[in-house]
Amino acid sequence: MQNQEIQTPAAGQAPMDDDEINLIDLLLVIAKHNRFIIKLTLSVAVLSVVYALLQPNIYTAKVVIMPPQKSQSSAASMLMAQVDAFGGLGGADKSAGGLYIGMLKSRSVADTLIDRFKLLPPSTPVAYEPTRKRLAGAVTMIAGKEGMITIEYDDKDPKRAADIANGYVDALDGLLRRIAVTEAGRRRLFFEGELKKTQEKLDNAELAMKTLQEKTGVISIEGQSSAILSAEASLRAQIASKEIELSAMRGFATTQNPDVRRTEQMLASLRAQLNKLEHQGQASEVEMPAKNKIPSMAIDYVHRMRDLKYNETLFAFVSQQLASAKLDEAKDAPVIQVVDKALIPEKKSKPKRSLIVILATLIAFFISILLAFFKEASERANLDPVSAERMSLLRRYLRRGA
Question: What is the span of the domain harbouring residue 74?
């Protein structure tokens, strides 16, 4: 055997670093498999060019809207009150934009657009759910901090992209109108029923008053005796009015609604005043005699008068609420204000063909280098008997698994 001499670097020559040796090895592997790397990279580049050219042009139409303000619509105010009440419970977006985007993403709006623009495939006319998913995938909705909502819709046809983007505004406006009419209609029906019942009670009270006057001959009662029960009748009528108002509100609002809470507080205050009047004989800080000191005939008369005033006050309140509900039902619902209407886009927004080709080529280049190193490692492993045996065992396991 020849003795191997250990070479030392000459004087003034720095020793070769391991990093430099590894870099040279890497370059040698790349140079060895350069044809494979170039062929794979060029093949992917050509395929990416073909793929990019085959992709259809996508056009994006954009519409910017401003949701109705709270002062514009009682229905919108009620919706916002519900969001404010439950915003802290489920992490709900408390902004008006988040609320209206949720309505834009609703199934009602999607089905309205599908039917209007005939988006269902001809072969499967009842496949609403897949069509809803495709519609949701083509639209982007953004709520800006300034309160504006931007709706962008992508489509192969630029005119249809603009039409559907504007169609979202029309569908939201229609949904808000239905909500407003439904809420006002429910209130109208409720107060119509209450007015009918109140009318019957008022007729009965008038008849009872007339019967008592004809029986006793009493026309009126003067003095504090009448004032006591008249004040009591007024309070009872106000309490009944607030109870009816609260019942109507609970038909379309939760107990956390600010208007419901405010009405409940007013009702509690009126009940406290009535309780004070009944037990202490006080009304408006004026001392009055107790009920047991009022003659029985006068008490019967004032009781009838109290019932009559109570039902008159109640009838007037229900009539006013019914007129208000009819007015709300007849007036226009909240109108969506369009800041920028969607126009037919002149230039495509997708695909970015040059970007597709560049990214695909770069990815293919790096993958080809990795494959080159893998091939080099396989070739070196075959030269080592132990490594070759392990590779053979690995291939056998892989074939067995397949």
Answer: 59-180
Q: Residues 167, 191: one domain?
A: no
Helices (H) and strands (E) in the chain, counts: 12, 6
Dump pLDDT digits (tens) for 45-89.
Answer: 999 999 999 999 999 999 999 887 654 445 445 555 544 444 443
- Taking the C-alpha atoms of residue 194 and residue 189, their distance in angstroms, rounded to an integer, is 9
| C-alpha 91, offset from chain centre | 12
258, 86 contact by CB (below 8 A): no
Q: Does 201 share its domain with 266?
A: yes
Q: What is the pTM of this model?
A: 0.56
pLDDT digits (tens, 9 = 90+) for 78-137: 555 544 444 443 333 445 678 889 999 999 999 999 999 998 877 766 678 999 999 999
Burial of 295 (0-12, 13-18, 19+ CB in 10 A): exposed
Copy the structure tokens of residue 170: 């029309």
3-state secondary structure of 366: helix
Q: Which two tokens stand for residue 165?
A: 């983007």
Tokens of 124: 């499967």
